[in-house]
Amino acid sequence: MTIVKIPFRPAFREPLLSGVKRCTARTKRMGAGGDRFLAFEQWFDLKIVTEVPLHYVADLWRQEGCTSREHFIEVWESIHPGKGYQPEQIVFLHWFKLVRS
């Protein structure tokens, strides 16, 4: 197991800690299955990382911790203002689980 760093916006604290947010899409691979990361003082285990088109992730808006597909796209565009939301862009989808002590 490797400890990796995956940053999250403060708005995702509650969805992460409640277990609602179970995945995160990134433009680069942030780790691999079996790795662990710390977010908001809690540990999470990465389960699997897959490459998928961004439109696939937008359809997983709830698991991404968003309130709707449109909300996911809005968040994505605010993080990536230069490129914006491009449905066919290939991204790395990181699935994780909160480690319960």
Question: What do these coordinates show?
Answer:
- This protein is of the alpha+beta class.
- It has helices at about 15-20, 55-60, 70-80; strands spanning about 5, 25, 35-40, 40-55, 90-100.
- A five-stranded mixed sheet has the order 1-3-4-5-2.
- A hairpin with a 2-residue loop joins strand 3 and strand 4 (about 40-55).
Proportion of beta-strand residues: 25-35%
Q: For this structure, what is the CATH class?
A: Alpha Beta
Query: Could you say which structural class the secondary elements and strand pairing correspond to?
Result: alpha+beta
CATH architecture group name: Roll
Strand arrangement within the widest β-sheet reads: 1-3-4-5-2
If helices are DSSP runs of H or I spanning 4 or more residues, what is the number of helices? 3
Largest beta-sheet characterization: 5 strands, mixed
State Rg.
13 Å
What is the average of the pLDDT values? 97
As a percent range, the share of helical residues equals 10-25%
Number of domains: 1
What's the count of strands?
5
Dominant shape: globular
- The CATH topology label is Sulfate adenylyltransferase
CATH superfamily: Sulfate adenylyltransferase
What is the distance, rounded to the nearest whole angstrom, between the alpha carbons of the first and last residues? Answer: 17 Å
Low-confidence stretches: none
Order of helices and strands: EHEEEHHE
